[in-house]
Amino acid sequence: MSEANDRHGATAPALEIRQLSFAYTGRPALDDVSLSVAAGEFVVLLGPNGAGKTTLFSLVTRLHDRRRGEIRIGGYDVRRQAVQAHARIGVVFQQPTLDLDLSVAQNLAYHGALHGMGRGEAKTQALAQLERVALADQRRTRVRRLSGGQRRRVEIARGLMHRPRLLLLDEPTVGLDIASRRDLVEHAHRLCVEEGVAVLWATHLIDEVRPGDRVLVLHHGRLLADERPETLTARLGVETLGEAFDLLVGTEEAACG
Ligand SMILES: Nc1ncnc2c1ncn2[C@@H]1O[C@H](COP(=O)(O)OP(=O)(O)OP(=O)(O)O)[C@@H](O)[C@H]1O
């Protein structure tokens, strides 16, 4: 979708957050967070439980809205230009949100209708996205019969049906085995390279970070690092990203993996 870029210049980031702060009934959950994700970029939002990752996603998607700061998607302000902004986001939530008693295709058709897509367009997009995640031949299967990894792939296909430029994934590998986790990480990287989709991947698992990924370390609602693993380890004078993470957030809260 180049419309946002046409209007806002080719350099409009897929996501831009400026000085974002948010509190749940007086308790700060995000404190002055600024970040930007370029078009087609893969960025890991790494933080232990309670760091504020889900809260940040909730503010981008406007599940919560009482906050300070600015959020733009593809150059569009999520409050003042909500329709344009939200047409450009796909989301895979931490908790699975598929209807287990519907088929894969029915789940995707429902999403297409929610996004105002015609039936024909929704069907075409659903098939194209299911092919990308190698699940086209399962489209008539009830979701209940799929494995955890397959369900997550269906959610990614669904999140991309309306052709967003930014895909938010909130701990998408929770509960999956190692091979399925690796497949999902690889798939998300391919989306960036082949489709130009920007991906913000939230996790507490260090082993989901790949060399070359940009890593945002979030802890107690504050952004403590925004750099490549190799830059971060060199800056902190340690060997591994795990050691760097321990130093930043404290060993007692260190991510596993
Ligand atoms: N609805 C809520 N009401 C009050 N406090 C909340 C609410 N949701 C989250 N919090 C608190 O806000 C902080 C950030 O939580 P958040 O869920 O955003 O973190 P997270 O990084 O996504 O963690 P996790 O990986 O455990 O989901 C935590 O201290 C959490 O207890």
Describe this structure in words.
It is a single chain. Helices cover 36% and strands 24% of the residues. It folds into 2 domains: 3-88 and 164-253, 3-Layer(aba) Sandwich (Rossmann fold), CATH 3.40.50.300; 101-162, no CATH class. Helix 4 (104-114) runs parallel beside helix 6. The strands form 2 sheets. The chain has a 6-stranded mixed beta sheet, with helices on both faces. The chain has a 4-stranded antiparallel beta sheet with strand order 2-1-4-5. It is built from 9 helices and 10 strands. It has 257 residues and is of the alpha/beta class. Helix 7 (178-195) links the parallel strand 7 (166-170) and strand 8 (198-203). It has helices spanning 3-8, 53-60, 82-87, 104-114, 119-132, 148-160, 178-195, 229-236, 241-249; strands spanning 15-24, 27-37, 42-46, 68-73, 76-77, 89-92, 166-170, 198-203, 214-219, 222-227. The structure holds adenosine-5'-triphosphate. Adenosine-5'-triphosphate binds at residues 24, 29, 47, 49-55, 171, 204. Keywords: ATP-binding, Nodulation, Nucleotide-binding, Transport. InterPro entries: AAA+_ATPase, ABC_transporter-like_ATP-bd, ABC_transporter-like_CS, ABC_transporter_ATP-binding, ABC_transprt_ATP-bd_su_PQQ, P-loop_NTPase. Pfam families: ABC_tran (PF00005). Residues 15-245 form the ABC transporter domain. GO terms for molecular function: ATP binding; ATP hydrolysis activity.
